[in-house]
Amino acid sequence: MRADGVRNRRRVIDAAKLAFAAEGLSVPVAEIARRAGVGTGTVSRHFPTKEALCEAIVLEQVEALLGQARTLGFLDYLDHLVGVAAEHRGLAETLTGAGFDVGAAAARTGLDLDGAEAALLTAAQRRGEVRPDVTMADVKALIAGCVARESGGPDPAARARMVAMMKAGLRALDMNS
């Protein structure tokens, strides 16, 4: 790809990232093109569908999340994930299933976020930090609830409360108390 093509692709991704983070996935492609300073044809050449553009952005975010999954414990990772989703409305929408399958997109590129998250959960359960009856479906539902709490706008205090409640509910029960 020519240097100007690489530059334009990056401009489109950066503009879409900002738009999706602030406004969600419903931002029209024409608006993304305007913000990137390119025509809609340029966007279409690099990303034939809006889903392809969403996928490129989400996959960058998934790569960053995978890096965090490798360094954080399970409960700290969930705290991080909810914080990232709260700051990036488009990612929050994808995490809660708004018409974009993050797992399938990641799997097509060899990024296994679902597997990394499941491994974190299993390791935390083996260490006795998380209840043994918790499943990844449970965890995803809890994350969706935390993210949904801020659908009306950023509310860090509410986010902190929701994450604290989620963590408390996930912690292994002490049968001796």
TrEMBL record:
DNA-binding region: 28-47
Keyword Nucleotidyltransferase belongs to the record: no
Keyword annotations of the record: DNA-binding, Transcription, Transcription regulation
InterPro entries: Homeodomain-like_sf, HTH-type_TetR-like_transc_reg, HTH_TetR, Tet_transcr_reg_TetR-rel_C_sf, TetR_SbtR-like_C
All residue ranges annotated as the HTH tetR-type domain in the record: 6-65
Protein name: TetR family transcriptional regulator
Organism of this sequence: Dactylosporangium vinaceum
Lineage per the UniProt record: Bacteria, Bacillati, Actinomycetota, Actinomycetes, Micromonosporales
